[in-house]
Amino acid sequence: MFTLRDVTFGYIEARPVLKDISLHVEEGQFILLQGPSGSGKSTLLHLLNGLAVPQRGEVLFKDRPLASYDATWLRRRVVYLQQTPVMLDASVRENLLLPFRFRSARGERLPTEDLLQDYLHTFLLGEISLEANARELSVGQKQRLALIRALLLAPEALLLDEPTASLDRESREIVEARAEALNAEQGVTVIMISHTDYVPRLVKPRVLVLEHGTLREVAA
Ligand SMILES: Nc1ncnc2c1ncn2[C@@H]1O[C@H](COP(=O)(O)OP(=O)(O)OP(=O)(O)O)[C@@H](O)[C@H]1O
């Protein structure tokens, strides 16, 4: 699904965060990405959906260079869930349906109210009205809403940035369990930045550690 070939990237070119990284991710794999703070884990996820472009080397999605895909299309297929979810100053419903408002989604069927309610219940957000302002929710609730928004797009790959330290344990566990189920039941490729103490229950992950700009695989 993804191939990185000798990828080097730095926000300042003279100081690369990632150095000559090569990686092959098969469709349906569940990958945990670990490493110290600032080692470049988020940056690596950004490279996989085109939010960052390598200075050297190349990134392929399904054997084609990332740049050959339409960026909006790609980000619906390869969904990146960032650490700090961003919500519009609008209702929960509007925030969930946001990706369907873009021109690229014309012709796609809008998710029904029932489906939205089902998702809210699944993620223990059943108490929250679709009319509520999404900006007024807690970080943990926003994180779950962002995941629902991502899942409504039925992505092929899910890139999950580590939930923030401020995220409550319950929210984190729900997000993790759902990511595992999506992988186990629907074959969605998952790459998740995680702490070493997270051990998936439903899936056997590949564990990659990023340190000093290089990537190594360790036993799960
Ligand atoms: N937009 C940016 N501009 C300049 N430097 C950046 C930018 N984003 C990240 N960096 C730097 O790149 C390096 C890698 O950052 P990155 O966020 O990828 O690390 P990380 O492993 O995800 O960290 P954390 O675990 O703390 O989230 C860090 O030194 C960071 O300061």
From TrEMBL:
The keyword Nucleotide-binding applies. InterPro entries: AAA+_ATPase, ABC_transporter-like_ATP-bd, ABC_transporter-like_CS, P-loop_NTPase. It comes from the Bacteria. PROSITE patterns: ABC_TRANSPORTER_1, ABC_TRANSPORTER_2. Keywords: ATP-binding, Nucleotide-binding, Transport. The keyword Transport applies. Residues 2-220 form the ABC transporter domain. CDD domains: ABCC_MRP_Like. One of its GO terms (molecular function) is ATP binding. PANTHER family: ABC TRANSPORTER I FAMILY MEMBER 17. This is ABC transporter ATP-binding protein YbbL.
